[in-house]
Design brief:
Length: 285
């Protein structure tokens, strides 16, 4: 591929920073996109511990990287490293995509839009009663997406975490999102959308929720959607139980796909066509 002036496109490196990160399928997905576009770029996964995040981000800028993604546990910590924040990153309070613009580190969040696009693959119906598990950067993006894009009239979101008081202090009074502890994750009103944003089931993560998974499934409304943003789908986990109970289920690969589509569009400065999205999806399966 050539530039507008007729010269070849200079190869750039992109990457994802995480701890852990060896399980990430982002490199295969973005490699497929670059190949479909005829671009010489590379995308790599880098294991970066929290104490080295600032060095890694600033080092990527110094080396001329085209951009970065951030995954667990860096999305909230990255806020302080950015010279500027896009509105959605500011609103959500987390960064999953970094664009280097003239030496400036600009933080974006494509997780929310990615989640909304993924959930619509299951059903286009409005959400009436949702429950989101976890309070990290991904959970913040998911809650924001549900409240701003997916929630129907008079709908509400139960946001479950280990420290509901801290979450409640951030939420506007009388809004559609209500903070709750794990003791409130089972029982109460049936939910038509359940989303796991914890690290339960992730490689090297915990194997069980603070409450039994079957109790979570028992609280689903008929025809509910259940999304576990962890991938690959853990055998015998939440999604298997929910699917056996008749729910529509989805693992984290569809959200990964769409946040990646939106992130790459930011890096390249153009939307990706259906053929490129199809190549990215195929690389994830």
């Amino acid at each position: 591929m050539t530039t507008a002036s007729g010269g070849p496109v200079a190869a750039q490196c992109f990457g994802v920073l995480g701890d852990p990160v060896a399980h990430s399928r982002s490199p295969a997905m973005h490699a497929a996109a670059f190949a479909a576009l005829g671009l010489p770029h590379r995308y790599l996964a880098f294991h970066v511990t929290p104490d080295r995040l600032a060095e890694a981000v600033r080092g990527a800028r110094a080396l001329g990287f085209g951009g970065l993604n951030l995954t667990v546990p860096h999305k909230q910590a990255a806020l302080a490293l950015c010279d500027a924040l896009a509105p959605e990153a500011q609103r959500i309070g987390a960064v999953n995509t970094i664009v280097f613009e003239g030496g400036a580190i600009v933080g974006h969040n494509t997780d929310g839009r990615g989640f909304a696009a993924a959930v619509r693959q299951l059903s286009s119906e409005y959400v009436l009663k949702a429950m989101v598990l976890g309070s990290g950067g991904a959970a913040r993006a998911v809650v924001d997406a549900i409240a701003s894009e997916l929630l129907g009239p008079r709908g509400h979101v139960r946001w479950v975490s280990r420290d509901p008081a801290a979450l409640a202090a951030e939420l506007p009074a009388g809004g559609p999102v209500v903070a709750a502890g794990w003791g409130e994750a089972s029982g109460g009103e049936a939910v038509d959308l359940l989303v796991n944003c914890t690290t339960v089931g992730m490689a090297h993560g915990p194997s069980a929720f603070p409450v039994p998974a079957d109790a979570l499934v028992a609280g689903l409304a008929p025809g509910a959607r259940v999304v576990d943003i962890v991938y690959p789908r853990p055998a015998g986990g939440l999604l298997d139980l929910a699917e056996a109970a008749g729910a529509l289920v989805q693992d984290g690969l569809e959200m990964l796909l769409w946040q990646g589509v939106f992130a790459e569009a930011l890096w390249l400065g153009r939307a990706l066509g259906p053929d490129v999205v199809a190549a990215m999806r195929a690389a994830l399966r």
